[in-house]
Amino acid sequence: MMPLYSVSEEVYPHEYLWRAATKVLEEGEMKEHPSFHFLLPALLTSYMAYEAFINFCGELLLPQIWSEERKHFKGVGIEGKVDAIVKKLSPFTWHKGKNPYQQIRSLENFRDMVAHGKVQSVRYVTDEREGRPHIQFKHAWDTYLTGNGVREARAAICSFCEDLLVEARKSSHHPHLLAPAFKGVLASAACVENAG
C-alpha cells in the first residue's frame, strides 16, 4: 500500500501577481512608446499585488481579525487594513501623509476607475487638424499610464511593503518573511508521512 502524507501548503498570491505585472510591464517596455495595453494591466496588477501583500501580512500577524475580515474592515478599505497591521507593528512609524504611502494611496483611485469601469463623459471645444476636428479621447486614468508613472508606483509599493516586512519579521518567524517584498517563493509546502 502506498503511503499517505499530510500536506500543509501555502500559495502566495502577492508573489504571482507581482511577477505577472512585471512580465506585462517588461513586454510593454520593449516598444519605443509603451502602450496602455501593457501599462494598464501592469499597474492594476501591481496594485492588486499590494492588496494581496497587505492581506498576507494581516493573516500572518492578526489571524483572528483576518478570519473575520468582512466584519472588521467593512467600509474602511485597504487603508483600514494597513492601519490594523501598523498598530500591531508598533513602534513602526507610518508616514501616512508622505510618500511612498501617498503615492500608493492615489493608486486606489486608479484601481477603482478600472475595477468599476464607469463611462467617462466629457465635453470640450477643439480645433481642426488635417481637415478634421481633433478628437482627444482622454481618460482620467491617462495620468497614471506612463512608463515612468508605472515604474514609480511600483517602486513606491516595493518601498512601503519592504518597510512593513522588516517590522513584521520582529513579530513573526514565518519563513516567507525572510525574502524581500515580492521576491519570495510562489508557494511552500511541508509533508509528513501519516502513521500506519
Automatic annotation (TrEMBL):
Stated name of the protein: Uncharacterized protein
